[in-house]
Amino acid sequence: MSVTEAFARVLSRSGGSSRAPTLDTSHNIVLYLEDISVSFDGFKALNSLNLYIEAGELRCIIGPNGAGKTTMMDVITGKTRPDEGSAWFGQTIDLLRLTEPEIAKAGIGRKFQKPTVFGSHTVFENLELAMAGDKSVWKILFARLRAEQIARIEEVLETIGLKDHRQVLAGGLSHGQKQWLEIGMLLMQDPELLLVDEPVAGMTPQETEHTAELLVGLAGKRSVVVVEHDMEFVRSIARTVTVLHQGSVLAEGSMQEVQNDPKVVEVYLGD
Ligand SMILES: Nc1ncnc2c1ncn2[C@@H]1O[C@H](COP(=O)(O)OP(=O)(O)OP(=O)(O)O)[C@@H](O)[C@H]1O
């Protein structure tokens, strides 16, 4: 990926320079999905899906292959438009009226499974670029950072555990470190809702443990929604688990509750 392409990706995440609408979580709910249906050639990938995410919560979404997890994330981020239903970010932001960059700008960050960091730039520069808005890459890298911008980068370096790697080229990081850097790049935009797709796929046990700590630490200040197949990992971080099946919510509750739900055992955990 060229620097220009990579930067375009950062920009699409940050939503460019237009003003973001203000998030209203006065009812303590950050995300409302109601009666969402999505069909692909007549096949219902989402079928009257209802999902509510509270402000500050860490939610895990599980479900067998094809349950609709990715499609749900695509609806939230504006990549896929539903045939029916409504999607609100807080009380006032209608996600179905916003473009993908506008949704990112409004405060929804999405971490895809495959990390997309700038390999030929340092960890610090990657965070700098993610903070940048719509200035050109070269202007950003040669401009002098303001003290508060440096402080913000340092804060994120601390959060993601890469303080000692700030001058390392991102291309030389381990798989896990690249994933944390990309989470850090999203944090530079200070999202209220972070969507994370299979964060621990391909990680070592130590990296998995660090990722668990990182995600648990991020919740509270913001809401985090994690889609993950690794049940051990889900067990280690989950407060509330939502089980999707055939495009709808099959069960929701604590890990113990959903694990003991006969419907869930039948379609998923019993495999
Ligand atoms: N663009 C598309 N065109 C046609 N069918 C699609 C498209 N995107 C998804 N689907 C189908 O919709 C269903 C739900 O897919 P989705 O990727 O949302 O499931 P998932 O729960 O994320 O699965 P996995 O765990 O395997 O990633 C699947 O049967 C999939 O084949």
Automatic annotation (TrEMBL):
<protein>
    <submittedName>
        <fullName>Urea transport system ATP-binding protein</fullName>
    </submittedName>
</protein>
<dbReference type="GO" id="GO:0016887">
    <property type="term" value="F:ATP hydrolysis activity"/>
</dbReference>
<dbReference type="GO" id="GO:0005524">
    <property type="term" value="F:ATP binding"/>
</dbReference>
<feature type="domain" description="ABC transporter">
    <location>
        <begin position="31"/>
        <end position="271"/>
    </location>
</feature>
<keyword id="KW-0547">Nucleotide-binding</keyword>
<dbReference type="InterPro" id="IPR027417">
    <property type="entry name" value="P-loop_NTPase"/>
</dbReference>
<keyword id="KW-0067">ATP-binding</keyword>
<dbReference type="Pfam" id="PF00005">
    <property type="entry name" value="ABC_tran"/>
</dbReference>
<dbReference type="GO" id="GO:0005886">
    <property type="term" value="C:plasma membrane"/>
</dbReference>
<dbReference type="InterPro" id="IPR017781">
    <property type="entry name" value="ABC_transptr_urea_ATP-bd_UrtD"/>
</dbReference>
<dbReference type="InterPro" id="IPR032823">
    <property type="entry name" value="BCA_ABC_TP_C"/>
</dbReference>
<keyword id="KW-0813">Transport</keyword>
<dbReference type="InterPro" id="IPR051120">
    <property type="entry name" value="ABC_AA/LPS_Transport"/>
</dbReference>
<dbReference type="InterPro" id="IPR003439">
    <property type="entry name" value="ABC_transporter-like_ATP-bd"/>
</dbReference>
<dbReference type="Pfam" id="PF12399">
    <property type="entry name" value="BCA_ABC_TP_C"/>
</dbReference>
